[in-house]
């Protein structure tokens, strides 16, 4: 009786409200109440799946209709572990998705008491080549499920692994129970693994006010991460060398011109091809002011500090190092200076080096671990033996009372890892500068972790060295993206951006005349992804345009250059392309003008790289009202060979 009364009362109230709105309709528009959007879902069948078996360690199973999961002993046989691998390609989840759930569904062939574990896959694999012997490394358990029913579906909550659109690789393992058999994607339609994502949407976050396509977290949030990002600082190339205006400073008159420094660089067309962004003349301690500016720029980009190349224990390089430390202490002592003795140039004994490092270590900004160990990270550490470095650290401890956390940077890591492992806190290498040279990143990280050491992974843009006559093919921003993405997927502990400002090798991340800060902006995106564990939501459409100003095989049509850069052995094949790197809040049509020829393509939500053949003239790109025009024309006639990629961002005007 009570229920019917309440129901009837509600109906009367609804009719009354409806009548009131009708009566008001002649004089005022009716107000429609806000209605919450229903939860949306998208589902994906597996793009690839297979399993591995310890009993057949070299055998593939990519053609069968089932997936096996079993701990050893399995079915009574020793050395018989089995595990399944599955990949999903997730798309169409909007950047403003919230309350996201992600469920992995697997259907069982038979009833067993199997316990399933879901783990992220950390390495690369393909179903047609996957075997027990070459299976990739796995991450920690995301979720578990006990018990399988024939024809039933096990639903495994993997929401914690969601990071946005992209590829998701999961492994199914078992710590206990009988042999579990699941349907693969080759079974009857609809029985294979499925990934379902549910989400709500919210009002889009306001676009950031700075140049970035996303809202970068606060400095405090980024520094709370144990993962650290340093940029390699090279003291020969500060913002200014002689405190003059750009048209009259040392860079312009001596480094960028073939006739600079009394024709010293004539044969190769000048020492440099790019330079720090010029400034006006400063009063007072202009060198300190410049160092402060560089630190402020790095802090804004999310960096934790500089690894500083210690080239000398005297001279201008030593003075600049001390000025940089002074600037960090003044601007932000939380921005750390990692001491990196350069063993290609330092010709000194262990005691002298120890005394110099101990002197620098008194500064607040010089990097120490939470346990107060001083980080020393020598470049080309193998320039001295492990025994030499053991003596150095003993002197640091016995004479100066400083315990060292030793993180050697090798030119050849595999050849030196075993000898240096007993004395090292971590490892690093100088790395390569082209996509073709990045295949060893995962194995280097795995080797360091196997030896219980942290790994500092080099992340780079490009490399061109006029005075050495060599360059690496970076494939526009591909090398930058690959080194970041492999650092993230491989589980690197620290990152070293190589380099902040070595303009003689063309490797600079620092804002420069020819990159305007674009490479640093792109790295801020990946840095945030790596530190937070989730790709940042894109909140403002942003385009980055990269290209050379001449074809790779071209030679100057005039001028005095006689020594030319050639591709480094093993580098990627030289290519002539313009790349549009887009960060889009949603799918949209992107327009490009390559040498005056109009192009259009379907831009995807999130990050996307699109390349076009290089052509003479001006390059532009736009999406909606967002435009970017490169000020660097591609020319047939030129006087100096320049194989660096120029970059420009729509976010920086």
From TrEMBL:
Residues 41-197 form the Carbohydrate-binding module family domain. Residues 1-30 form the signal peptide. InterPro entries: CBM96, Glyco_hydro_71. Keywords: Secreted, Signal. It is found in: Secreted. The keyword Signal applies. This is Carbohydrate-binding module family 96 domain-containing protein. It comes from Nonomuraea recticatena.
